[in-house]
Design a protein that fits this description.
Elements: E1 7-8, E2 13-16, H1 20-32, E3 33-34, E4 40-44, H2 50-56, E5 59-62, H3 70-74, E6 83-86, H4 93-103, E7 106-109, H5 131-139, E8 151-152, H6 161-176, H7 187-197, E9 201-208, E10 220-223, H8 227-235, E11 237-241, E12 253-255, E13 263-269, E14 274-279, E15 283-288, H9 293-301, E16 304-306, E17 309-312, E18 315-321, H10 324-335, E19 343-346, E20 355-363, E21 369-377, H11 378-384, H12 390-408, E22 414-415, H13 422-429, E23 435-441
Parallel strand pairs: 1-3, 2-4, 2-6, 4-5, 6-7, 7-8, 8-22, 9-18, 10-19
Antiparallel strand pairs: 9-20, 11-13, 12-13, 14-15, 16-17, 20-21, 21-23
Helix pairs in contact: 1-12, 6-7, 6-13, 12-13
């Protein structure tokens, strides 16, 4: 791979957490930043990855950050002009964002994490355990630190990269529908474009086909990325951005009584909620409605208002089909009442074949459906970057782009992916994303339905069932 240097970084670079994403991004940072390994320190709760840190010359500190000790552990390791990259689990993003703002350090994470129990504590109301609630809590810090050091929230593959895919997809559909005009320059202009095109729904449609020759065993959870992270988010309430066109409200759906009001949640885990979706290579499939920050931020960003009245908003949600062994793992997990299996196995070097097909599916416009995204094989991932599989590389490439953007824009305060320069991020990430493809299709969630049994489907409005119909 060409080792293009995008930016110089003279400060200290602190990585919190060093699982698959931390190990995968370290060589990319050293490849594309003017930075010495001696500037990089890794703080992580487990010894996992110590040999990778040593291979690249980074300092490795085994220390779990907690609510009580995180300031003490970070003291002396973070100051004005430094960078904290948070790829951990069970460490509060809000606490770290505030700490970085006080210290004058830049910040980026790949999701908004709470302290332990924040996702699953039954004493908390579901709204407080939601990504909606976590997002509102993080955005509330803007009032405390206006135009402070840049803190990029949720900039992995999804959330993160997919927000930039949405903008590219909107431009592609606009071009192919004969829309005139250039690239929108504001949030309102992007919402106006989506409204003119008639987009009703946006799925983050992902199918992971990576396989290992070693099958999942009973009592084992297998996945191609963080198992603790996946189980945590799968245990949260199912969430989706709620479109302005929706005419029927789900029986177990609930609205939040605070914040932007762009999303709803269901009284069930996302990992127990299946949805219909489509990717070009897989075709139609059943995915899981796993809560993700992009389902909320994209719907919020693309809301078109007149005063306080919502004129247009797309329904937006994740439709995730993980690797087949992860599906079996989820099935077993649900059968054990969401108690994690005793053994965990992260698929990395043992993967034999497969791709991660990750993109956004725009529905409702006059061209049918349009999927735009990354089709990255395990072979290509190994060719272009060490310590990655296809899934992790889509995350690390996006995080790399976000880190560089933050260095280039150091005083933007707290920002979300939707507010960043999508062309710049795609430029940086593109060499690591395999094939970037845009494909039209004729699929709808009603296609081929009722082949076995009659269903009560509203033929006049096929879009009303497209998002959350549980099978």
């Amino acid at each position: 791979m060409p080792e293009k240097k995008y930016a110089a970084f003279p400060g200290r670079f602190l990585i919190v957490g060093f699982g698959s994403i931390g190990q995968g991004i370290l060589p990319l940072l050293l490849r594309h930043l003017e930075i010495r390994p001696q500037q990089v320190t890794i703080v992580t709760a487990e010894p996992l990855g110590r040999e990778v840190a040593a291979l690249y010359g980074a300092t490795f500190v085994e220390a779990a950050l907690t609510r009580d000790n995180y300031r003490a552990v970070l003291e002396g390791r973070l100051g004005e002009g430094d960078f904290l990259l948070n790829v951990s689990v069970d460490v509060s993003s809000v606490a770290l964002v505030a700490h970085c703002a006080e210290k004058g350090a830049l910040y980026l994470d790949t999701c908004i994490e709470p302290w332990p129990g924040g996702y699953t504590d039954p004493s908390l109301p579901p709204s407080a355990r939601s990504n909606y609630g976590l997002r509102e809590g993080a955005l509330n810090l803007r009032a405390r630190y206006p135009k402070g050091p840049t803190a990029v929230l949720t900039h992995g593959a999804n959330p993160g990269l997919v927000s930039h895919f949405v903008k590219q997809a909107l431009l592609d559909v606009a071009r192919d529908c004969g829309e005139k005009g250039g690239i929108p320059q504001s949030r309102k202009e992007w919402a106006q474009l989506g409204s003119r095109l008639g987009v009703k729904a946006i799925h983050i449609a992902e199918r992971d086909t990576q396989v290992s020759p070693v099958s999942k065993e009973p009592g084992e959870f297998v996945n191609t990325w963080s198992i603790d992270g996946f189980v945590s988010e799968g245990s949260q309430p199912a969430e989706l951005g709620w479109g302005s066109h929706e005419r029927h409200f789900p029986a177990d759906g609930r609205r939040h009584d605070f914040g932007c009001d762009a999303a709803i949640y269901l009284l069930r885990p996302g990992a127990a909620t299946r949805v219909r979706s489509w990717t070009p290579l897989e075709g139609s499939y059943h995915g899981f409605l796993i809560t993700h920050g992009e389902s909320i931020s994209i719907a919020d960003y693309l809301t078109l208002k007149e005063g306080e009245r919502v004129l247009w908003r797309p329904t937006c949600h994740y439709a995730y089909h993980p690797c087949d062994d992860a599906v079996l793992s989820l099935h077993e997990l649900a059968g054990k009442n969401w108690r994690l299996q005793a053994r965990k196995r992260l698929l990395m070097g043992e993967i034999a074949t497969g791709i991660d097909e990750l993109g956004v599916l725009l529905m409702g416009h006059k061209r049918g459906v349009y999927w735009y995204g990354s089709r990255l094989s395990i072979e290509e991932a190994r060719r272009v970057a060490p310590h990655n599989n296809a899934t992790s590389l889509q995350v690390t490439a996006a995080a790399l782009g976000g880190v560089i953007w933050a260095i280039e824009h150091p005083r933007e305060g707290i920002v979300e992916p939707d507010e960043m320069d999508f062309l710049r991020i795609l430029e940086i990430a593109r060499p690591y994303l395999g094939e970037l493809a845009g494909v039209y299709g004729e699929w709808t969630p009603l296609l081929g339905r009722e082949s076995l049994f009659a269903e009560d489907l509203d033929r006049e409005d096929p879009w009303q069932f497209k998002n959350f119909r549980v099978v």
